[in-house]
Amino acid sequence: MRYFAEISYDGSDFHGWQRQLNTITTIQEVIEHWMSKLLRQPIGILGCGRTDTGVHARGYFFHFDTKEPVDTAYVHSKLNLILPKSIAVHRVFEVHDSANTRFDAYERSYIYRIRLEPNPFDRKFAWDHRIREPFNLEAMNEVASLLLEYDEFYPFCKEKSSAKTYICHLSRAEWRYNEQTRVYEFLITSNRFLRGMIRLIVGACLYVESGKVRLDEIKEALDTQTRMKKDYIVPPQGLILFNIKYPYVDTAPYDIIF
After folding, report:
1. What tens digit of pLDDT does each residue of 237-246 get?
2. What gap in Å lies between CA 168 and CA 217, rounded to an integer?
3. DSSP structural state of residue 83
4. Strand, helix or coil at 29?
5. What is the radius of gyration, based on Cα positions, of the chain?
6. What is the DSSP string of 203-251?
C-alpha cells in the first residue's frame, strides 16, 4: 500500500530534509524513525524535494509504503503527537501504487522573505536585513523578468552539484513588498529547482539593486551558461518551499503564507 503525507516544517533545527550518514537531525530521518515505531515496521519515505539546512516548507509531500493497509486518520493524529513540534502533519491519504511525490510533482514554488526592520516574532522565517534603505523593487524585478526568458540555469547552481541537467521551466519570478507584514518577498515557481538556486538568484537581485553587478552581466552568464564573476548566496532562514502540485492531488494554494 502506498500513502502520501502532507506536512509543514520549521527547518531551523534540522540539517535539511535529506537523510545523511553523519547526523540524525534531518527531517527525513526523524519522520522515518517515529513512523517505524508507530507502525511497527521499517518505514522509508521519499520527499517531493530536498531543502537545505535551515530552509522551511509548507504543504510539503512525502510518500511511504506499508505491508498492510493502515488507518490514515490514526497515523495522522498519532504523528502529530509524537513528532517534534517543528513538524506538523496536515493529512495522510492512500494513493495508487506508482504515485511518486518526487517525480510526479509538476510544479513547485518558493518564497524568500527579507525584513529590513527587526521583528523578534518573525526572525526564523525571514532574513533580518536591517542595514540599508528600502529596496528598489524595479531593479530587482528586472532580474526576475530576465530569468523568465531562459530555461537553463547553470550560473545559479551551487558548485559540486550532482545535477544531470540545469534545465528548469520557470513560470513565475517576481518581487513584491507585503504592506501587511512589511516584508520584501521573492516568489518563484518552476517544475524543478537546482541546489542553492533560489538563494543565489536572490543574491544576484540584491547585487544588481545595490550596483555591485550589472544586469547585462547576469544576461551574459545566462547566455553563455557560465559562472557569475561575483555571486552571493543569501542565508537560508528566509526561504520557504510551498505549493507543490500533482495531477491527481487536490491542493489548496499557499500564496500569502504569513
Report:
1. 999 999 999 9
2. 20
3. S
4. helix
5. 19
6. HHHHHHHHTSS-HHHHHHHHHHT---SS--PPPGGGEEEEEEEBTTB--
Domains of the chain (ranges; CATH) run 2-103 (3.30.70.580), 107-243 (3.30.70.660)
Question: pLDDT (tens digit, 9 = 90+) per residue, 199-247?
Answer: 999 999 999 999 999 999 999 999 999 998 888 999 999 999 999 999 9
Place of cell 509538476: 106
- Residue 84: how many other CB atoms lie within 10 Å: 15
Q: Does 122 qualify as catalytic in the annotation?
A: no
Phi/psi for 173 (5° steps) reads -160, 110
10, 52, 104, 231: the catalytic one is 52
Pair type for strands 45-47 and 127-128 = unpaired
The structure's pTM equals 0.93
